[in-house]
Specification:
Length: 316
């Protein structure tokens, strides 16, 4: 399996633990979204379950690496999955997935003496799923290890955090993000690449979404909204147009990440008064992003509201 770019400190800590006599049974991989925590978890899990002389299948098909899924969002999506078509998934991991995982833990590992559960992401677990997970963390079966990916570790219950060892992941340097883009999207033009790196703030995942979703026009409008304001609603209308009338969930989610990144990027040079407006707008974007999939807002209205929050940060 290919070594993940960057994150030397987490790798050193992980390998030191792997080589120790007593490996902790539960880990939280904490850091910004898109920096590679999920990939780290899969590589680390493969290392943990490996047995000398025993051929190992790919992680996603490994019988001793359990990854609870985000199930289809609706009955219609279930039919699409069965037909092999693209389908929408739920926004959280339900308790049924955790119970299915726990049922598997009642059996012995298949290819060796260890089994790994990857929860990606743990901060998207439903409340009752969290309570069910806690029981497994309190009394883990022999040879079972947990890797909990968390974008916002503060959303995890203290009782979960207290039972886990924490690995922290920092944003990558711009040069490393550029290297990821050059490998994954080699035909990206220089202007788009530069904008993607600037918007990503050290997150290769965000940079790749920027390129894949063609967010350069969205980013340019968001920057103008945050700096110039929008007294005549023209920029908000333009933002709704470039977002599209039926954007995918991935595009909408990427737009929210981008809007928050725009505010964070402008925060450093802002006056204290403007910083306060930016922080307030950022918090409102987080709330709106959480509400959007629940209330099923119309995309143009959602784009207008995003634009309004960005414009409010300008103070104009």
């Amino acid at each position: 399996m290919t070594r993940l770019l960057g994150h030397d400190a987490p790798w050193r800590e992980w390998h030191a633990a792997l080589g120790s006599a007593r490996m902790h049974h539960a880990w939280i991989l904490a850091g910004p979204q898109g920096v590679g925590k999920g990939s780290f978890a899969r590589i680390a899990a493969a290392e943990l379950v490996a047995e000398p002389g025993v051929a190992q299948p790919p992680v996603e098909a490994h019988p001793d690496i359990l990854i609870p899924e985000y199930p289809p969002a609706t009955k219609e999506d279930e039919k699409k999955r069965e037909a092999g078509e693209d389908y929408n998934r739920k926004r959280s991991i339900p308790i049924d997935e955790i119970r299915r995982m726990q049922h598997r833990l009642n059996t012995r590992p298949t290819l060796g003496n260890r089994r790994v559960v990857i929860l990606d992401t743990a901060d998207d677990l439903e409340k009752n799923a969290v309570n069910a997970l806690l029981k497994s963390l309190e009394e883990p079966p022999a040879g079972t290890y947990f890797l909990l990916v968390a974008h916002r570790i503060g959303r995890l219950l203290p009782t979960i955090r207290s039972r886990c060892r924490i690995l922290r992941f920092a944003p990558l340097e711009d040069g490393q993000v550029d290297l990821v883009l050059s490998r994954a999207a080699p035909h990206t033009n220089a202007a788009t690449r530069a904008a993607a790196i600037a918007a990503a703030q050290g997150s290769p995942g965000v940079a790749l979404e920027f390129v894949e979703e063609d967010l350069a026009p969205v980013h340019a409008l968001m920057q103008r909204l945050a700096v110039e304001g929008d007294p005549d609603l023209a920029l908000r209308g333009a933002l709704a147009t470039v977002m599209g009338t039926r954007p995918s969930r991935a595009r909408v989610q990427a737009a929210f990440e981008l809007a928050r990144a725009v505010l964070a990027d402008n925060l450093r040079a802002a006056s204290p008064e403007r910083q306060a407006r930016m922080i307030e707008a950022h918090a409102a974007l987080v709330r709106l992003g959480a509400e959007a999939p629940i209330f099923n807002y119309e995309p143009p209205m959602l784009a207008m509201e995003m634009g309004a929050l960005l414009a409010s940060a300008s103070g104009r």
